[in-house]
Amino acid sequence: MIDIQGIMKCLPHRYPFLLVDRVLELEPGKTVHAIKNITFNEPCFTGHFPGQPVFPGVLIIEALAQAGGIFALREIEACVDEKLLLFRGIDKAKFRRTVVPGDQLHLHCRVIKRKGMYWTFAGVAKVDGDVAAEAELSALIADRKPDP
Predict the structure, then answer these.
(1) Which of 13, 33, 48, 106 is catalytic?
(2) Which pTM was predicted?
(3) What pLDDT shows up at residue 148?
(4) Cα 99 to Cα 11, 26, 59, 69, 116, distances in angstroms
């Protein structure tokens, strides 16, 4: 299990764009299972949609990408100071159900392919066991440039 402190050592994202709260399982070389707790305090809910808050699909995909990023960076034993995970592509994205405040989004990523520092994951986001979204995600791990 990786808590929020461990996640922040892996990913450069910070509020309001850090979209993984905890990693529940990480099976080296294979899969990661993380969670994102959806609260009414999310900044996106002020405009998406007033009176009927719906967590944006693009943020669900980003949360899946971040879960995959944690997996990949842990696999190569890199930290946020050394490497940067760059999102490269989204394929076969489908949205199956709405995600609303109070939901807990379970983020599942499975490695499809790895070639050097290029990764492809099959991602599935679930709420209460039901698929909310799914996609194939690709990313590249690059050297992080030093801060100016």
Answers:
(1) 48
(2) 0.95
(3) 67
(4) 24, 24, 11, 22, 35
